Amino acid sequence: MPALPKAFTDTLQGLPGFREETFLRVHESPERVTSIRLQRQKITDVKELFPQLETTPVPWTSGGYYLSSRPSFTFDPYFHAGAYYVQEASSMFLEEAIRQTTGGEPLKALDLCAAPGGKSTLIQGILHADSVLVANEVIKARAALLADNLTKWGAANVVVTNNDPRDFARLPEYFDLVAVDAPCSGSGLFRRDPEAVEEWSQDNVMLCSQRQQRILADVFPALRPGGVLIYSTCSYAVEEDEQIMDWLVENFGMENIPLQLRPGWHIVETASGQHHAKGYRFYPDQVKGEGFFIACFRKPGTAGSPQKFKAGFSALPKKEAELVLPWLRNGAEMALMAHNGEAIALTLPLAKEMPLLQKQLYIRKAGVKAGQLTAKELVPDHQLAVSNCVAEGLPAAELSQEQALRYLRKEDLALENAAKGWNLMRFNGKNLGWAKVLPNRVNNYYPKELRILKAGTPDL
Ligand code: SAM
């Protein structure tokens, strides 16, 4: 990677925890850290995923592991089954931040700057199952990627939206928890993204800082009094970190929530210049992870009465619901919604929120699409196959790794002894998608836009 510009390192001098020599050394070193987080509703043992690698827990998260080397995730069927998410280790500290600032009760949570979905999958994985998560991304193409990653994650209590932060003012005092993982100048990721080194400038830091303020001001009305705001960046710049903390306290009276750290974590506590708000800095020469900053706040005041809205989404008519229920695990405990001839499965708490969310936001994906309804049957959707709510005991074919990769490339498959009709395609018990077995061939229903295009073979 290119040498770090002096203009950049000069801005870090004197910052809490900054040690120039080791910081420069770690940026010069070719060593890279790889970490993943398990989707624990699909898998609990990391050894099943990477038997040939050394795996070590990321200390501030449950289900997060460092891998001793980077496998080719593209050729790993478990990756496509959504059994894990590849996520930078420092940012997994969000789990600890949420645990220390909320009480474990069901929450309405917003991840405002959510693509590609690392924080959203983490939030979904740790909140109470009756919580509702709105994962939002303002850039359309990135919102599509976010939706794909949340499809793979498989939860039925998540809504993906494609809105500008200012649109959330239409949901006054609605969310109990808002995460703003803000777009930033990105210095924390220099090790991974050498191009970012060349693009770095102090002018851009200032632009990012102003944009961060705009985003926070826009979303502020949507947080309920008493609710928690978690702000994070992957920048070391004081203008994007400590100065934003002061700005939140000064302009919105936000109450800073300090966190407890363990000494062995080597995370550096920092305080803002004016109001001494506590935030947490992660330096790659001190933690096993990239550069990161996080701070937590509570909105002052007490909550008013929740917004009233007409309950009732377009529930699936009984006859159609009967076509869908056999495909669902615990279908009786879920809500079924009709949308453009499709059946959508949602958790009951999410279904309750849907009328309001549909009215105020641009929804890209809600819950899990069960499939398209025809007069006689449900044509099951890919979302259902990789979800946590697909019924057990449906016809399924267990594929070898070679077959699984053929399936994921959307190539032809030959399946011996498979039942006729819809079958789940599985790799070591993890669902990859659907295929329809006909008398003389197998139709591969893996979504074209998700298929593996990269040539090569697995090195796993
Ligand atoms: N939270 C994500 C994760 O963990 O995978 C990473 C988010 S990234 C740091 C910041 C996101 O903010 C990007 O997806 C970017 O498209 C989005 N963004 C860019 N400009 C924005 C704006 N003006 N308002 C809100 N979000 C913006």
Automatic annotation (TrEMBL):
Residues 19-300 form the SAM-dependent MTase RsmB/NOP-type domain. S-adenosyl-L-methionine binds at C113, A114, A115, P116, G117, G118, K119, E137, D164, D181. Pfam families: Methyltr_RsmB-F, Methyltr_RsmF_N, Methyltranf_PUA. The active site is at C234 (nucleophile). Keywords: Cytoplasm, Methyltransferase, RNA-binding, S-adenosyl-L-methionine, Transferase. It comes from the Bacteria. Belongs to the class I-like SAM-binding methyltransferase superfamily. RsmB/NOP family. This is rRNA cytosine-C5-methyltransferase. It comes from Chitinophaga chungangae.
